[in-house]
Amino acid sequence: FVVIYRTLVICVLLRCVVCYAHMIMAPRLQLEKAAWRWVETVKPEEIRQEHINLAYRINLPACKRGTCRRNCKGNPNCLVGIGEQAWLGEIDENAFHNIDDPNSERRDKNTFVGLTNLGATCYVNTFLQVWFHNLELRRSLYQCHNSRAQEHNIESDYEPQSICEHLQYLFALLQNSNRKYIDPSGLVKALGLDTGQQQDAQEFSKLFLSLLEDTLSKQKNTNLQNVIQRQFCGQFSYVTVCNQCGRSSALPSRFYELELNIQGHKNLTECVTEFLKEEKLDGENRYFCESCQSKQNATRRIKLHSLPPTLNLQLMRFVFDRQTGHKKKLNTFISFPEQLDMGPFLEGKPYQKCVYELSAVLIHRGISAYSGHYIAHVKDARTGDWYKFNDEEIEKMEGKKLQLGIEEDIAETVKSQTRKPKCSKGYHCSRNAYMLVYKVQEEESSDISRTNVEVPAFLQRLVDQDNHKFEEWCSEMADMRKQSVDKGKAKHEEVKELYELLPAKDGEPYEFIPLEWLKKWLDDSTATKEIDNSLFLCSHGKLHPDKVAESKRVSLQAAQLLYERYSGGPRLDGSSLCRECVGQRCRVLRLKNQLNEDYKEVSNLVKRTLSGEGYWVGKASLRSWRQLALDQLEEDEHETKHSNGQTNGQGPHTNNSKELSEGNEDDMKTFNEDIVCCHGTSLSILETERKLVSAEVWTKLRAYFPKAPEFTQNQEPCQQCLTLEQEEKDNEAVSKMMALDQKNQLLNLFHEKNRPTLTKWPQGTDVLYIVPLFFVDEWRKFIRRPTKSSPVSNVGNTLLLCPHGGFMFTYDSLINGDAQHIALLWPNEWEVISRLFIVDQPISIHCFKDTPPSGPTTQYTTQPDLCWECRESFLFQQQRDLREYTQATIYIRKVIEDKRMVKDAAPEMNASSSEAEEEKEEHPKVDGERDPDFSQSEDGAKRLKLGDSSTASAATVPVTKPGGIRRSTRHRKLRGEKALIVSANQTLKELKIQIMHAFSVAPFDQNLSIDGKSLTDDSATLGSLGVIPESIICLKADEPIADYAAMDDVYQVRMPEEGFKGTGLLGH
After folding, report:
1. 633 and 573 in a common domain
2. pTM value?
3. I need a surface site. Which of 261, 374, 430, 896 has the fewest CB within 10 A?
4. Distance between the two ends of the chain, CA-based, in angstroms?
5. Catalytic residues, which ones?
6. Is residue 38 domain-shared with residue 56, that is, in the same domain?
7. In sequence order, what are the beta bridge partners of 769?
8. Are residues 255 and 191 in the same domain?
9. In what ranges is there compositional bias, type Polar residues (predicted)?
């Protein structure tokens, strides 16, 4: 028998080994199952070393290089794909460092220097490059007095202060720096610009030149004071001619750039012609003639008098869209010449040079006015070559020709792209150019000084200092590269030596090393730490079976070398395989395999008639015992699994099977816990929740739930529970008798029948009593469910009184809304109330009728008397709360032709059908609308809801429809209406901006009103304008203007852009 048994075991083991041989590339889960397949035929007490080796996968074949695409985590002998590929074979020394060649940061010979983009400062960089290439401007800036730079000690860093100093230093670096690109953050910071926000490039150009002109005007050198005017300033005048008398008046003006409208035009000539064309002044726009002394029809045009050497032409690509309330970009193709003759447009100066040559084109790449990228194409004045300046990148164009390239291919989406028109020779065509810079054409001269600008000695000294720092940095980077290469070569030799020793041979000593540590050891980008095996220990201090997949079996020789060089521990060798964990897992897996068969058997046994001694089990436990058993086995299995490196085997874990059974049988955790009494030890007294089963059934269940409470057939129920149950029954009987007695004495109050009202004082009595509605509600709850609710003992009338003991409501306020807080009682009902309950303070209202000759009068008084001081304070606080709010909701309702949409439009689809029907009916008018305590909106719904009035007595005056049904006080959002969150201290202008985003109506097209009163003061706060929470503001929108030019003018007048507000460009 022993021989046969051993033969069977050996066959099973051989089958497992064969399975492993076929599963070298198997997924991790399949390897997991294969490692424990032997438990089907081996009991926990029969486990030997062969089974432990199978569980720890000691005998799995090692993977060979080339057979695995990635490391086999389920195989502790697989040492392929852990990062060794980067070290085996010859390695390029550049792989040992991640430091770029510092010479790549060096400026190439005969090239220009770029500018770093600090986030969204490409628009600044383009203009700086254009101004740098203006030789006259650069030469003049170099001549500016700069004592700080001249006296600077080169041992410290130079920090410019003024705009001129920053620009001087920046231009000197652009001219003679050794760097490929320089950082303009000093100038940007001095201007106070937000580096993360893209601004209007055209506006930046205007403001910067204005700031520079103001700065240069303070120079002592008179030649520098007007350099901006000499370079960029021209003159024109607005000439107006009266159609009646022919009188002509001229208003002279200077310009630094011509702003040309491009909408509807194809070439630059058309744009300039429209800029100078005659305009008619008629209708409301008529001109007041000094000769006629009255308004007359007239014509107006712009007359060009002189042009600057550098002519800046702004193409107005960014216009304001009235429909959206935002600016948009016009992607219109505009043709412009390389040589521009301005002679036909100039008047009165026949001898002035009027022929200009194109020197720069500024491009905006992108379809939106609020995003995109700016680049500049600039012509070198010395060589005539064209360059593209794109922040740090600079590209020289071939053949000394302007080549706009792909900048014209990404302007719009595919749907809106139009075909690029053909351009004649000497012309260029662009849909992204927003500024053209022309320089007056000069005769060719051999004078080199005209195109040669020397950097002054004091600035060159600063440039040399920066170049020296750059060379030191290059040398430092080169040294770091060399150190990294030397370190990498040493690591390469170490890995080649040790990796060959890693595989553990069969029958030889071995140890386990964490897989993640091996990967980091082979990853040169991270520092190698000491070996840490503490996370792999089971509760017995040995290697956990589950952690085999996260560790690798290596030879003792390799492990010895690794621990000598990197230290660590605890060391895990062949003696660290845990027999206890393997045995426990074996028991759990066998029970899981047996569970289905036992479930069927138990189901059949329970149906049989009980004979002999039985055991109590919970019916809920019996219904779900299979799931509970599975949960228990999962928990037991988890105890044998690793839990986040805690050596005691305990810790948080997730159990999928428990998640699946969540909510079953009231989240039962333990078998039979449903029949354990609340005291935790005895049998429950609820016989309907338990069932008797045979000893055979209990034995099978006990195998799965060894810790479950056991109750034999003769077990006595909990005596404490029996006593408490009897006491509860006695108390319920008393409560029922009490509720029945109170109900019979106050039957009308309970059923809300024959209730007194204040609007029509009842005959036969001159006094009514008042109690809080809360008291009546709680009392009714007790009467309806005396066994579930607590009896009411106290009336609590002090809730309706002020701290001085005075009443808080008047007769008028009660009939106008405050009655929702109280209930009225007849005198006989009050006698019953006083007898049955504790009354802290009686409250009554009295009616006095008088019949003088002038006619009958009625007066009402309360006892206690009204406290006027507290009443006024209460009303004042209510009004204050309505004026000092934050994060409140108001509703903006758009109206058409002075008619509210609410009258014609149905409620939104999310309203119920009953609410929709209510919207169709006429809103009732409630008396007392002007009472300060009663806030009512135009749709008749109460806005200030102080309490739930659904169960109010007849004293309450509900808002009703003609049919007598109470109208809902909840605001119904209608089609065409939107809710906004506002605060009382918010201005009307800020509200209009919110409305613009919600309705796409520009602020200057918004006509707002509340309760028929127009809201016009944009600087006023909403609280001062009477806008309270839940208010409805009506919005009537003006028709938008189709003329984009007119829209832009209005926008600039009514809503100035604040992009550069607070920056140095505006003097801040």
Report:
1. no
2. 0.51
3. 896
4. 102
5. 122, 373
6. yes
7. 825, 844
8. no
9. 643-658
